[in-house]
Amino acid sequence: MGRYSYSYRNVIENTGKITIQDLITWGYITKENFLSTTGNISLSNSFVGKICGINVTVNISNHAESYIRFNYTYKGYTFNYDHEIELFKCNFGKYRYYFICRDTEKRVTALYFNRGYYSSRHYHKLVYQCSRDHRNSMLYINKANSLYSKAEWYLKNHHPRKAKEIKHKANYYSLIGHKKVLNRINSFFINTYYK
Question: Over 49-65, what HEC string results?
Fold first, then answer.
């Protein structure tokens, strides 16, 4: 269900992110022990190539402060900041890890890279693609699907003329709905990659 207020916001699916699961996969966080590690990750875009190299330091401790620190240069500006990592003790043992966003103080599992800065989706005001989709196209497609099933019922109950009329109307609704979806996809690619 699309809303006008979401139209100016960037989309989560188009932004880079670092999740807790990424840090576990890359070996920055281990489930068994507490450690401090430093490494480099490369932020890249498939159309532009490498955007910047990011130096990441992760410090995990059950007594002291746990954090992830970012240090990089992006578009001529140097960034050096950190987000707290919270260790949440689970009932079944071990820990569950969360980022505490330094800008919103919210507990999140992913930090998104937008406007040269890693932060939570709430801070960047990011939305999911489905929230930007307008409902008109889906209304047409759903209407077409219901008309197709109605036409099948008429055909099954020996009303071929009525079934043909309804199927013709269903084709019309389906065509309009799919054109709207294709127009949205085309405008997305044109606005994103050919600015």
Answer: EEEEEEEEEEECCCCCC
